[in-house]
Amino acid sequence: MTQLITVLKVGGSLGERGGLEPLCPVIGRLARRWPFVVVPGGGAFAETVRQAAARFPLREATAHWMAIRAVDQYGYLLSDLIPDAAPVFTFRDARRLAGTDRTPVLLPGDLLRRFDPLPHTWAVTSDSIAAWAALRLKARRLVLLKDVDGLFDGDPSQDPTVPLVEEMTAAELAERLRTGRLGGVDGYLPHLLARARFETWVVNGRRPERLAELFETGRTRGTRIRPGAVRTVAGVGPKRVK
Whole-structure pTM over 0.90, yes or no? Predict the structure, then answer.
């Protein structure tokens, strides 16, 4: 029987200011009840690549593959911090471990090198890597754990009164990104979500109880994104998803 897997992206920003310590044990507990695959962000490892790209005349392709390996590094970190987790390098192994007593942490570098499905630009981040993995795994849900409560119509750090967007389609997300009304996810993500059959949630990983609530009830505080066709996003054209 095909498992209904959730792909859980753990954002790199959660590696700062003690975000992972309370989160990772919760992920380990949830993994005993629901099958999911963890996809890492980039965190401080990716920031090191950004600094190198700013200092040296690196080609975009070079910076891209360096950043992909930074995601792998963060994945090794998560596989040690999440109880009973194990790094995996193929979709087959991710499916095999999901729903067992081991939590698969997908290190995507080898898969991305093999399939090369995403544009080589800083406009593409681990958000899109996680969405691509969810498409390949035929996931039932994608959850993007970040250090904010969801996606906002504005910058809540500048204006705390801006409203949380509780629900939108991928097409609406694309339009908000295009007009600069919204940030928090990468500009290529809507292209991938437009091909999806799964829902996507943006949830605050610094509030692990919300992740638990989402698994237990199907709802929580955050932003839910439904699939929906898009045109162009933030100047990044579509690339065939392999």
Answer: yes
